[in-house]
Amino acid sequence: MATFVERSGPDGKPVWQVKIRRRGYPPQSATFDTRAKAETWAKHVETDMDRGTFASDTEAASTTLAEALDRYEREITPHKKGAHDEHYKLNVWRKSLLALRFLSSIQGKDLALWRDAELKRGSAPGTIRRRIALLSHVFVIAKREWGMSSLINPTDNIRLPPPGRARERRLVVDEYPRLLATARVYGGEIGPLITWAIETAMRRGEIAAMRWEHLDRKARVLLIPETKNGTPRRVPLSVAALAVLDGLPRRIDGRVWGMRPDSISQAFERVCGAAGIEGLTFHDLRHEATSRLFEKGLNPMQVAAITGHKTLQMLKRYTHLRAEDLVGMLG
Prior knowledge:
DNA polymerase, domain 1; hpI Integrase, Chain A; 3-stranded antiparallel beta sheet
């Protein structure tokens, strides 16, 4: 049975507080500016209770997004392959004003405002889409596994920015020797890492995780036991790739490289800046390497076996053949 009490609101105007207590259900309460609205809400809740379809929003209404993000990182993130990088993605949402809001209060319009602000700041559409996808999964987990069955996922009610065009950046003119020359000045592993990336088309995370016991020197093959798509693969090694390994000291911990994924990107960015090279990322070296494999005459299946791409469509996104390099093949 619902009870209604008239009270004075924060602004001095009267408000109506409604409370519902029913055996088998947690107490429910809400406040409205008119009794009519309070009665409508109470009727809706009691009808759902009668039907056995009532889902309490108490927990969703008392859990902030920041608290949900923290729990998600404790319980869900550690089971993902990209757990290390996801920490930084979650921090993007922790730093937003939405982090202070209760989950049940976040609506599609709030995320639409966030999306538009990010686009205005210059964030790439793909980056925004990935961040929204992560937030969406937080709401999915809260609804399915944390008992917030009444929670509505606000990401279902907004338009995502269209995917940006696939990057087509390749090394041009003398950029490769300039990169290597500058990397030699910096010293450390970044120079060999650049050559390795070009020779193997491996992902940054795969490179950072390499271990000496996975190398079959005689067969000239490197095993990658854990990949982004979950399928282990064996990468054939060129003479140049083997030369890179031969020039590296053996680490006591068994790892081939001492740098972590984020450190690799940071070092590469510094080298590009010092070399006067703009618009190039370490991940672009995977595009470059994939395109070079095709230019060597390998067919799509052979290239996919090396790069680990699951579909020809994804392989195409990483392949950027230059018209001038194809002229000689036409006769």
